[in-house]
Amino acid sequence: MLDARQITVDYGRTRILHAVDFTAWPGRVVAIVGPNGSGKTTLMRALTGEAEYGGQVTLSGHDIAAAKPWDLAAIRGVLPQATPLAFPFTVVEVVRLGLSRGVAAADTGLIGQALARVGLSGFEGRFYQELSGGEQQRVQLARVLAQVWQPVENGTPRWLFLDEPVSALDIGHQLQVMQIARDYADAGGGVVAVMHDLNLTAIFADQVALISRGHILGQAAPADILRDDLLSRAYDCAVRVNTAPASGTFILPHAARMAAE
Amino acid sequence: MQDIEAAAHLPGDRSRQARALSGLLLVLLGFAALLSLGTGASGVSLGAAAKSLVTAQELSPRDRIVLFDIRLPRMVMGVLVGAALAVSGAVMQGLFRNPLADPGLVGVSAGAGLGAITAIVLGGLLPASAAALFGYYLVPVAAFFGGWATTLILYRVSTRRGRTSVATMLLAGIALGALAGAVQGILVYVADDAQLRTLTFWGMGSVAGATWSKVLAAAPLICLALATAPFLARGLNALALGEAAAAHIGIPVQRLKNTAILMVAGAVGAAVAVSGGIGFVGIVVPHLLRLVVGPDHRFLLLNSALLGAALLLCADVISRTIIAPAELPIGIVTAVLGGPFFLWILLRQRGLLDM
Ligand SMILES: Nc1ncnc2c1ncn2[C@@H]1O[C@H](COP(=O)(O)OP(=O)(O)OP(=O)(O)O)[C@@H](O)[C@H]1O
Ligand SMILES: [Mg+2]
Hints:
Chain A is built from ten helices and 14 strands. By secondary structure, chain A is of the alpha/beta class. Chain A has a six-stranded mixed beta sheet, sandwiched between helices. By secondary structure, chain B is mostly helical. The interface between A and B is large, with 52 and 39 residues.
């Protein structure tokens, strides 16, 4: 389980996160939502040990602040919000970066499977820097998947930390990638994903944490967080949540809906 | 997500080509070494040189001295310096995630140069006993410490709370290089005519005058640095994704950076100490190899060492034949060959360099 207690993060003199509590479990997809600049990426950086933080983060028994990078790498993969690449690696070479030393012998099989999983079979020999933004994002996801391919290994659950995994994707690939996250959790792994698309969140997440200005407004099941009042307050705009049983949950900005009618 | 079976060779996997290239480069290095042994003012031929490797006693004493005390140390020095410069370049570029980064760029070469020039100009002011103590080693020793000191200062400036900012380090390296250049300029002002000639010659770089004692002075540090390089390969690959992503893959980033900096300081310091400022090897060689077999450091570092050594030997052969019986400093040869070549690479690869 991932347990974060009283997380504070400062950039210089500015406090970005104010004593945030956050929890995630194996077998579940936990989404972090909130407006731009509210601290989602910052929270993610604290949870993965990338940012210095006050408080305590424990991931499957490891204290994140004290754990060795290779121990953490064995149990969790991290997809950053944006990943620049310095040199002209091919797609295969990028995905291989995710593999630890031990699995190198069988790497061609795993690389191919990871690429197939994100719908990029046939892209193996392409240069990463010559791909479209959405294709690059999926190559990075394949790299992260290759790192922690088995959701459970030796009885220990593994984790995916995804910062806006579908931000550059079309609707079909959004569903594909969210399904990967869903399947990973269903197979026993843990998934923490920063999301902007509240509709996808409603469909795929088991839990939603809503952040606003560095505070957690709540963490609970989607139906308890994705509500008109909470969302309108957090995003500072009128939001309407439609929960008609027949059509499922969908969320619209209120003003746009009004204008359209 | 279960079965992991080794599938067929993947299209974008260039590791086979990279391994094959290592074999090719090894052969090339062998040829370059023979060429280097067989070329020179004294007229000992390549055939005689090859034969001598099997049966040393067939040579005249004079030829034996030419081969084993002049050309062989020079060849070994060329191999060491070429490998050191090329691998340092590759490691620097991986560390800075920038194909244009170079040991010269972070001030290591400039610092080493400043040390050497200080020794050349102010060495005459030393009491005779001190000068005698250092003797031949005064300039190399000073160059090594200059490079080392620059690296330490650079490291202090750009490291905060145990983390090195690559951007700060690059900029600090430029500042330190400029500073070293300014001090060098002042020293040149106070140098006399004879010292100026030494300075010019040294500044252009040369492996002429290599002796076994010089080789032995540089070899341990260079060999240690080169032996460290393979352990950096996986980390440097991961670093291409940025420091944060590299850490997430399991790389101890801070340790990687420390080791890489020490490795470069050692290799460049020792190389500059014995051969002066030989430019372009550290930037052209890795660049060329990246174009051919890609940026994977597991192969790039070894191939850089082989190609760097071979290239330096060839440049050295050119330097001692093109205006024979006189010799051109090898730094001029590498600059004349490497400069336009590098510009050509830049023109062709402009897109990939915009990062
Ligand atoms: N390196 C930094 N230095 C200073 N301030 C920063 C830094 N990174 C982020 N911030 C600030 O911290 C706050 C939270 O940023 P964060 O990246 O966590 O937002 P976010 O919720 O992920 O937003 P987005 O939806 O745009 O990705 C913002 O106000 C941002 O300006
Ligand atoms: Mg963000």
